[in-house]
Amino acid sequence: MDVRSRFEELRSADSVDPAEVEALWADLPTVAVADILGPWRGGDFACGHPASGLLTRLGWHGKNFDDPMAAQPLVCRGADGALYSNTDAAAGGEASLWDIAFRGEVTATMVYDRMPVLDHFKAVDGDTLLGVMNGKLAAYFGVPDLYWFWLERDR
Q1: Residue 45 buriedness (CB in 10 A; 0-12 / 13-18 / 19+)
Q2: C-alpha dihedral over 151, 16, 124, 5, to 10 degrees?
Q3: What is the rounded distance in angstroms from the CA atom of residue 62 to the CA atom of residue 40?
Q4: 12: exposed, middle or buried (C-beta count within 10 Å: 0-12, 13-18, 19+)?
Q5: Most CB atoms closer than 10 Å: which of 4, 121, 141, 152?
């Protein structure tokens, strides 16, 4: 099965073993910061991570990468339907983008301004990213596990 089909199968599953997403991650190419600039719509995999419920409560829509020094990790949809950068919620601010090594590969990574947390990205295809939140997650979510999510270009 090709990577896009594996991605779709995992994304639509009611329950996902994180090891399956990790296996997909291992088969994907890295991306450079310049390749991921722009607005993105996001979601996650049904791995049972506490971040999923938090993002749902916040009305998380996705992320916006205007330029390497201006990244918005929590683009949310307000009650009026408008999108906004939620700088008051869990992420506590915005972020920047860097090419950083994760598991032996250098790939585009979002570094949160106010949390010891990194979001690493790899390409499923030209318009879809697989992301993994890594860092001191236990301090924010009570668990050390990685949080797996996806982004699609929001045109």
Answers
A1: buried
A2: -120
A3: 5
A4: exposed
A5: 121
pLDDT in tens, 46-88: 998 888 888 888 899 999 999 999 999 999 999 999 999 998 8
Q: Is 35 helix (H, G, I), strand (E, B) or coil?
A: helix
Contact 76, 84 (CB under 8 A): yes
**Beta strand residue intervals within 12-116, DSSP E:** 38-44, 60-67, 70-77, 83-85, 95-102, 105-112
Q: Tell me, what's the pLDDT at 114? A: 85
Residue with tokens 């996001």: 42
CA distances from 122 to 83, 139, 143, 152, 154 (A): 25, 25, 23, 12, 17
Strands 60-67 and 147-153: unpaired
Contact 31, 110 (CB under 8 A): no
pTM: 0.92
Phi and psi at residue 51, to the nearest 5°: -60, -30
